[in-house]
């Protein structure tokens, strides 16, 4: 079973700064980047209809929210494409106001009715100053299943010509590579420190399994090589390789 109560990255920085925005521009001391759980400050709305908007980077099942600050109630809207949003609540057209206890330390954890989203908006509705810091908890959505594989969307590795796709299934190395080749891709080649560090950071959002990569000596028993023919000049990948999952990797 997959852990579906993991923090999604507001506090630890796995959600990047450019993925956190607000409807109304605010001073840097109370801007969107101050909305991370346990930040020294907090994000404060600048207008009645102002909201904080978070791009999670992939589609997740959201199960819980942790809130710090003086906002005592708030509304959530969510969506998958960044354009269309649904209000959180039992009524399709009405946003349900969720309560928060500002006196709770270190934060107030609210169990939610699970919903599927990549983009989330949160709008404080009541409180002495409505300022908040927060974190969401959940897991990658089971809806991302194609051909029996639980799969994330393609995402570009910064400062690289490559993109990755993460596939969640217990499978042999040979079957993993066959699947990748069917997608006109290949198993991951961690041929540079830039790629390895990005993968390490990216996978901290997920439960700590092991991962198949494209290093093998199958055809040359005395020599290891990357399946995409990249040179084996970097071995920092060693801490991340092994058994039960695999990464799909290609150059578009």
From TrEMBL:
Keywords: Receptor. It comes from the Eukaryota. Coiled coil: none annotated. Gene3D superfamilies: Galactose-binding domain-like (2.60.120.260), Mannose-Binding Protein A, subunit A (3.10.100.10). The keyword Translocase does not apply. PROSITE patterns: C_TYPE_LECTIN_2, FA58C_1, FA58C_3. CDD domains: CLECT (cd00037). It holds the Pfam family F5_F8_type_C. This is Discoidin domain-containing receptor 2-like isoform X1. It comes from Paramuricea clavata (Red gorgonian).
């Amino acid at each position: 079973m997959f852990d579906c109560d993991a923090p999604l990255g507001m506090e630890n920085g796995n959600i990047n700064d450019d993925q956190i925005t607000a409807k109304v521009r605010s001073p840097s001391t109370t801007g969107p980047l101050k909305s991370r759980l346990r930040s020294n400050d907090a994000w404060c709305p600048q207008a009645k209809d102002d909201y904080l908007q978070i791009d999670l980077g992939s589609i997740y099942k959201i199960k819980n929210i942790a809130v710090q600050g003086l906002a005592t109630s708030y509304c959530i809207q969510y969506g998958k494409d960044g354009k269309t949003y649904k209000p959180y609540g039992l009524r399709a057209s009405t946003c349900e106001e969720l309560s928060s206890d500002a006196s709770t330390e270190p934060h107030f954890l609210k169990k939610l009715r699970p919903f599927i989203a990549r983009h989330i908006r949160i709008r404080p509705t009541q409180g002495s100053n409505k300022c908040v810091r927060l974190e969401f908890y959940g897991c990658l959505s089971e809806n991302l299943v194609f051909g029996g594989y639980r799969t994330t969307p393609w995402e570009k590795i910064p400062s690289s010509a490559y993109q990755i796709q993460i596939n969640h299934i217990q499978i042999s190395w040979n079957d993993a590579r066959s699947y990748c080749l069917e997608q006109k891709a290949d198993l991951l080649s961690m041929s540079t420190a830039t790629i390895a560090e990005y993968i390490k950071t990216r996978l901290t959002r997920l439960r700590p399994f092991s991962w198949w990569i494209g290093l093998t000596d199958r055809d040359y028993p005395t020599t290891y090589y990357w399946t995409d023919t990249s040179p084996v000049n970097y071995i920092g990948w060693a801490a991340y390789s092994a058994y039960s999952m695999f990464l799909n990797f290609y150059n578009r």
